[in-house]
Amino acid sequence: MRTLACCIVLALLALAPAQSPTPPSLQQAFDAIQAFRDREDPMEAISKGRPADAGRIMDRSLAAIERRLTETKALLATLRAVDKGSLSERDRLDAELIERDLAMEIEGHGFGGHLMILGPLQGPQQSVPQMNEQMPLARADDLRAHLSRMRAVPQSLRDQRALLAEGLRRGITPPKAILAGVPPQFDAVITGGLPTLREPFDRTYPDLSAEQAAALRTEGVATTDAIVTELAALRDFVRDTYVPGARDSIACVELPQGRAWYAFRLREQTTTDLTPEAIHKIGVDEVRRIRAEMLSVIRRTDWFAADAGRAKIADDALFADFVKYLRTDPRFYHRSAEDLLAGYRELAKRIDAFLPGLFETLPRLPYGVREIPRFMAPTQTTAYYQSGSLKAGNPGWFYANTFALDQRPRYEMVPLTLHEAMPGHHLQIALSQELPDRHPLRRDQGFNAFVEGWALYAERLGIEMGLYQDPYDDFGRLLYEMWRSCRLVVDTGMHALGWSRQRAIDFMKANTALSELNIEREVDRYIGWPGQACGYKLGELCIRRLRERAAKRLGATFDLRAFHDAVLGEGSLPLAVLEARMERWIEARANALK
User: Fold this and answer.
1) Which helix (H) or strand (E) holds 367?
2) Read out DSSP for 279-297?
3) Is the pLDDT of residue 340 over 50?
4) Could you tell me how many helices (H) and strands (E) the chain has, helices first?
5) What pTM, to 2 d.p., does this model score?
6) Residue 517: pLDDT band by 50, 70, 90 thresholds?
7) Domain limits, the chain
8) How, if at all, do strands 396-400 and 383-386 pair?
């Protein structure tokens, strides 16, 4: 029974103002976000050298996706509660950028993109065979963790099948036109029997007895067989139900909430508010400018000099004849995959020697050149980069496609190596990972327009390195710049302006010397990944604009090495933030001269 005094105390407490919770610190908010991400994707955490449950994989079920959405909203609310007024300028910027990431994650979920998990460049038919690539496999516990991850794969494949089925039900699927090559990818993996998952059981581990190794190997083989069986069931569903039921239209605007979705994708991928029409026009203008440069380079080649009659040919016909020559003459192609890879490795080593002359700061993390796995090569792009981690002991990798050697010309090798390795993706991403006194959230953050814009800008740095003295190599540089400009035209054309797939292919064929196979793969990539391809050219144009502004303002005192370090010194940034930061840098340098 309550006493009168007790009742009075309770009444007074009820009337007293509630105590406001102490606002979280930025460190606390960031740590909570990082802990959440590492818990949900332990393999990603381990690949970056952070501790995580090595025996788990990400839960791909719809229930887990919805739970993560709820938790992401709570984490965003916590971050927004941080007192920004007490932060340094750098911390305030970091908080704004991570807040942007979380907000866009939440907004993007509403369009249903999490249901489109399959395509020629993504899906379990690619991720499962490669799931070991950045995982440690040196001791017995590593092998046991590998087996534990494998045990979770069959359920994960069933969960992903459920996501695809839900996408079919809601009309949220990739276009049928780009899915034809997916079942053959499954076939190649199933036929191969997943040797990448079996191989760790054949290694010797210093802390594993022969009996223990044999027992783990037996279970590993059985688990691999179970994964293959589940992959076959998923393949059958994809081939017999998903592909036939996928949408016929290619345009993002034809999806549910399509116009809003494409606008979101452009905002996310370009970090600008440009409309499809504005981006389209920028692309058309760039195509016109680069075409004139390409014709000038053609007239410097031995092919042009070999026939005096070519001087009288109209520009369009001259371009078409030259492109036909490039696509068909054996002098431009390697005869073996080994020769192609050796060529990339030699070129990468040659480029490395120029880097101290262009950068004050270089990353410590090394990189290598690898062949794209052959089971996925037929439907993969020309190359891609996989980031590494000093902390985890993983180098960066430049993956090159060796499928169809008659479609991998020598004159593309210089810009491609500059883009994917040094001073492109590897240099920029590794430097970001090595930023001092920064939270891992910011070190790992990547804005597409910055990352790809820098890599395209890096291709142009081959001019300073003297790598384009051969007019065919210089044409390759322009070809790659033209390719990225065409992307602005065809991405917006297909997704917002009513272009067909064939019209996009024809436009690319008319304006680039890319092989027909590469053009088809690229167009299918733009169809399946709306807006992403627009980030390259818009980012590169921004960086080039800033360099021209700095050179003009600073005159003879302009230091290219310092400029590059300033561009990369805060990690990946949205273009507007980069522009504002570099304007301040330019003015500070100019004022220091007064």
Assistant:
1) strand 367-371
2) HHHHHHHHHHHHHHHHHHH
3) yes
4) 27, 3
5) 0.91
6) confident
7) 1-40+61-116, 119-248, 266-538
8) antiparallel
